[in-house]
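Task card 7
Instruction: Convert sequence to structure tokens.
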Amino acid sequence: MAIEYGTVEDYKGSVETANLIPLVGTSYSEVEELTEILHLLENWQYKSALIELDKLISSGQKTIDSLLLKGEIVSLFDYNQEAIHLFDTVLTMDSSNVYAMVMRLIQLIIIKEEAVEIDRSLNALRLNAPYLYDYFKETLDFINDNKLRFECDANKKPIDLICVFGYFLNADGSMPPKLKQRLDKVISLAKEYPSATILISGGAVQNAYVEALEMKRVLLEAGIPEDRLVALTRARDTVGNIIEFIDYIKDRMFSSICVVTSLDHLPRAWMSLKMGLKNIGYDAEVGAAATEETVGDMQKEIRLSYQTIFRIAGLFEKQDIRKLMMD
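Output:
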């Protein structure tokens, strides 16, 4: 099934990609025939990686790992039907491949496949991996219950940690309006809760300017003491933000955490942090504060919610699902 990768491009900028959290491919480091392709992925050469995977697959070296890796990549770029085809192919080669079942299910949910097909696929997962089925269903219900939750529970305890999500900077390093609005909300909360630590997450994604460092500079200029600000600089997306937040939070004691982001991003950001904390057994209330704006078309954001929360839940990468199966 050949497709044109029109929305997938190789990165041509100056960002040191090795400094950022990887997007895809970390489960295949021991697969020898994928070594060069993984190197391309590490350097954000996604289109080139897909072209090389196509060559590998069409040359007769169609292994389960090459099909799974390609399925992971195309699903992240919204080629969901192509991903379903790839996972179907894996299941014809190995009908009990639980990873392919899970990834296929996620794509079916994202494209809003008919309920009967989703139920059939859920049942296949239940028969092959009952524990994984229970966890998948619990995660799916959590997303469905909260994907349009724009009014999150207010923090009942005084906020002692503020988690701010970054956003793409302009080419000259200046702040786009969406990010300025997030920082205005942070400044307001910082004044209301003068002892709260402020985590700022965002790497150099679009250009050489590091989102977290530019955000920190603005907050310092607003009079917030530097010892309250922690800049986390490796995230390239919401999943990366959560990984950075959790790495910082896990060894420290916080009781009341507030997510700060834009209104359209709020359900996904709030669910992501809730899921990340649940995964490490961390007990803290999580509230949210959003910028004042009108919510536009939410269909893309809802699709991203499924993809993001399943990734954070450990239901997206092969190595994470293998770990869940062993627990």
